[in-house]
Amino acid sequence: MKSGRVGLGTAAAIVSGSVLLSRLLGLLRETLLAALLGVTAEGDVYRYAFLLPDLLNYLLAGGFLSITLIPLLARRSEEGNELQTQVDFTAVFRWVAAGIIVLTAALMVGTEPIARLAFGSLAESDLAEVVRLTRIVLPAQVCFVLGSLFMAFQYVQRRFLLPALAPLIYNLGIILGGVVTGARAEDRADGFIWGALGGAVIGNLLLQWFGAARAGLRFTRGPSKALPAYLALAFPLMIGQSVAVLDEQFPRLFGQLAEDGATTALSLARMLNMLPVGIIAQAAAVASFPFLARLVAARNEPETERLTDRALRGSTVASFLALALVVGASRPLVSLVYEWGRFATADTDVVSGLLVVFGFAIPAWAIHQVLSRWFYAHERVWRPVIIGTAATVIAIPLSFWFFDLFGVTGIALASTAVMWIYTIALAASWTKGRGDRWQGLASLVGRVLVPAAAAAWGVRLLVDQAPDSGPVVRLLTCVVAGLVGIGIFSLLGRALRLEEASLGWWRGRS
Q: For a tag on the chain, would you pick the N or C end, based on fewer CB atoms within 10 A?
């Protein structure tokens, strides 16, 4: 094994630790945003500024660059042809770099008309602020896209540490920017925006360039068929945007239909909900994917299925437990994390209610993250793209309809409903021709529902009895609620012969 390379257990530990720290820093970032900007129009404007940059990232499949490039590089690595690995990487990198730079420059010019189209309901002063902030943060997408390519090279070499640092540095940049300008009310949002740009440059671009070079990357020109192969994998992701990718944008798009602060409230609730999603689902999927790609390249299908099953079972069980804890302890969680500065008790009521709705999507996130990696590892990109795009088409009218029926809560409800539609459809496609897969997954979900529901009920009973008299009490309430939920879940899980309810199961598979 080459120096710096790690096995699956170590990779999972590195990625899980990184995701945990990144999510915690993300919560700290959101806490600072809530305290300084509040659930206000100013907070909404800050979030609107990220819509166009994020859409640019999605247009170039920036979030999927590692996924699409890893199988190509893994195949060369399995063949032992390291020189061709360098040549293939260089061929892809050159064209992607040119594309993202040209598109970023074009969008810098066209920011105002696009923002006017997306946020036509905003006042002129707010719209001008969105345009100004958007132009500051747009170049960060160059760092994200190119950094993803450098990360893919490191993943193939089984190096996970420096890629794991990227989101930490990015979040630290935003936090530092907010702290520096926090005392000056006139440019608080500016500090967060400039911090995001600085974090992207350092953590996502420069550090990953260094990491790839340490892993042996040398830009090498030569004959390569990698670019057409890469485009064949990436093109479906560019033209067909999955609901799982665009879900983050729905609060920004539909939140403007409601009162001022609705976009911020939705974003804060979703951020807290994505903490367990990142730790459970993202860690399992990211850590296992390079190994899945290598197994598929080596045509070791039995081991591929075993690894997929292991990741799927573990993340599914953990996600239902997370659902129970998040739903049961939603109010003290929101109060503990966000109720500072300009964030009032009334805001806690709104955000905690939205968090309950978002929480029911946690298992869907966990299941589809693992299943989609199985498709990507087998280079069957079109199927999850078609399913995800169809779910996105459903999400748009459903969000309008649910908003008319339930107000801002309906936007969160539509997001949760569509996420389950996408996951069930993806699972049905994954099990096609293999009924035992479907029966196994359905049986697992069914058995986990009972202890999860009981744990949520137990946690809710405990929380309802707890006083709300300050951050210390809120923290203790969350800790005790968590222990009660885990205890109920474990006892009922064992009674239902759910082996993952035993802590020994996790230790045996670390």
A: N
Global confidence as pTM: 0.74
Backbone angles phi, psi at 138, to 5 degrees: -55, -45
pLDDT digits 0-9 by tens, 457-485: 888 777 777 776 677 777 777 778 878 88
Helix axes 140-156, 82-109, angle to 10 degrees: 170
- pLDDT of residue 416 exceeding 80, the answer is yes
Residues 431, 366: Cα–Cα separation, whole Å? 17
Q: How far apart are the first and last CA of the chain?
A: 20
Print the SS3 string covering 305-349: HHHHHHHHHHHHHHHHHHHHHHHHCHHHHHHHHHCCCCCCHHHHH
- Cα–Cα dist 374/18, whole Å: 22
Whole-angstrom distance, CA of residue 356 vs CA of residue 336: 16
- Kindly list the distances between the CA atom of residue 167 and the CA atoms of 284, 351, 383, in Å, as whole numbers in the listed order: 17, 25, 29
27 vs 100: CA distance, rounded Å? 29
Q: Where are the domains of the chain?
A: 1-239, 240-448
CB of 126 closer than 8 Å to CB of 41: yes
Stated length of the chain: 510
